[in-house]
Structures are given as C-alpha cells and as structure tokens.
Amino acid sequence: MLKVFITDDHELYLEGLVLLLNKQPGFQVVGSALTGKELLQKLPEVEVDILLLDVHLPDTGEEELLKQIRSLHPDLKILYLTIMRGTRYIHKLIRHDINGYILKNTSIEELVKALNTVAEGKKYFSKEINIIDTDQDFRNTVTIEDKKVDEILSKREIEVLTLICKEYSNSEIAEKLFLSVSTVETHRKNLIAKLGVNNTVGLVKFALRNNLIE
Question: Domain 2-125: which CATH class?
Fold first, then answer.
C-alpha cells in the first residue's frame, strides 16, 4: 500500500483529491494539510511514502518549505501537483532534489502513474512541461500551448496582462477594470508566478508568443 500525504491550500480540491486517490487500488492517503505550517506539524506523526505538494501555499515560500521538509524527512519522495507551467519554477525546485512535477489538470490515470513512478525511485515530470532547457534558457521560458492559455489564466488575468502589455500603469488598469490598485498588483504578481517569468518583459514576451497581443 502506497502511503500518500497531500498538501493544497484549496480545501474543496484537497478533499476531492483525497477521496479520489483513496479509491485507487494500492493507495492510502494518510494525511492532508492546507498550509505549510500544518504540513510540518502533521508530517512527523504519520508514515509517508510520497508527499503530494502544491507549489504555492499561503504561509511559506516553496524553497524554505522544502528545506524544512528535508530536515524532517531527508529521503521523503516529493511530487509537486500544480498549475505552474513556467520552467523557472521547475528548475528552482529540481535543485532541491524533488521527485516530480505534474499539472493539476492531469487525469487520475496520469497521477497514479506519476505516483507509482516516483515510488519506484524514478523521476516523473508532466509531458506538457519541457524541462530540457539549459540554465541560460529557463529563466524566461514558458511552455504553455496557445490553446491552453485560458486553462492557466483567468479571464481577469488575461485582461490585466493585455493592459500591462499596452503599458498601462497599475492605477490606470485599476481604473479601467474597476479594481483597487492592490488587486491589480496582486494580479501582476500572480501572472509572473504562474507564467514562470521574472518581470514585465517576460509577460510581454509570453503575450506575444501566445497571440494575446499584436
């Protein structure tokens, strides 16, 4: 029986995944957590084979959390389940010897395959993510197919991105979309995180590559 611990900050998604995985033969979800703090509290109390972990948790950075997890369980296998397709995040996490990285829109069949692969001591990365890029390339690389942009970005995020590319300031975007400036700033930060770019230039390159602007 493969024992899995799941951490994700979206409660409904987490509960659904726990139920779904527990129905799969050979799998047992031995614990779950909504935050990094909760994960670190619960992890020492259970026997775990694989940690299924969301990249972004509200209370801790991904690299700091990885360091703390490794201090508790140096040999624990970690499979990331996330919406982030930008290779900058993947390469950053690979440096901490993670075991895999799979997208949240994956099928249960692929998730089971990924868990079994990781359990065998192998690495598993979603086929939709290109991790072959060399270090000089990955910092501003985004591997989202055109037809899947709307699966990663919300309608509002696409609106904000389009206006950013037209060189509108945060305050101007806020006025046009009837949002607060802080909300626009949050959208900008989320776009940079989701797309795995470093700055506004990276956002513009992404928009051009995916035909969001002319």
Answer: alpha beta
Instruction: State the 10-residue block means of pLDDT for the chain, 214 residues long.
Output: 94 92 95 94 94 85 84 88 65 70 87 93 77 40 52 87 90 93 90 78 80 73
Q: Under a CB-based contact definition with an 8 Å cutoff, are residues 143 and 128 in contact?
A: yes
**Which CATH number among 3.40.190.290, 2.10.50.10, 1.10.1200.10, 1.10.10.10 corresponds to the domain 144-209?**
1.10.10.10
Confirm whether pTM is higher than 0.70: no
Adjacent-strand bridge partners of 102 = 81
Ordered DSSP codes for 57-118: BTTB-HHHHHHHHHHH-TT-EEEEEES---HHHHHHHHTTT--EEEETT--HHHHHHHHHHH
